[in-house]
Amino acid sequence: MFVLGNLISAIAVILGYPSNPIVSFIYGVTEPFLAPFRKIVPSYKIGIDLSPIFALLLIWFLKLFIVNTLFGIAARL
């Protein structure tokens, strides 16, 4: 288990570097969606970035809204 722990720790350190292509890709994909939420709830006031939580809540709300709307349309046909 000691060796496996060191392996996972080394992988985490490598993936944590900002110049890593995986980290750059994830940041590039998520930042356009999270940026508006960061403007609404700036993290510097509370020290925690809550924008991913608000983004997930919006996605969940839209999913429920769209799915229920589609079920309603299907029921009327």
Q: What do you see in this structure?
A:
Helix 2 crosses helix 4 (51-76). The protein has 77 residues and is mostly helical. The chain is 84% helix and 0% strand. It has one domain.
3D shape = extended
Mean pLDDT: 88
Largest beta-sheet characterization: none
Which segments are poorly predicted (pLDDT under 50) over 5 or more consecutive residues?
none
Query: How large, in whole angstroms, is the Cα Rg?
Result: 19 Å
Distance separating the two termini: 59 Å
Q: Which structural category fits the helices and strands? A: mainly alpha
Helix fraction, binned, reads over 70%
Domain count: 1
- Helix count? 4
Please provide the count of β strands. 0
Strand content: under 5%
Order of helices and strands: HHHH
Spell out the blueprint of helices and strands.
Elements: H1 2-16, H2 21-40, H3 43-46, H4 51-76
For this entry, give a set of tags.
77 residues; 84% helix; mainly alpha
Quick structural overview:
The protein is mostly helical and 77 residues long. Helix content is 84%, strand content 0%.
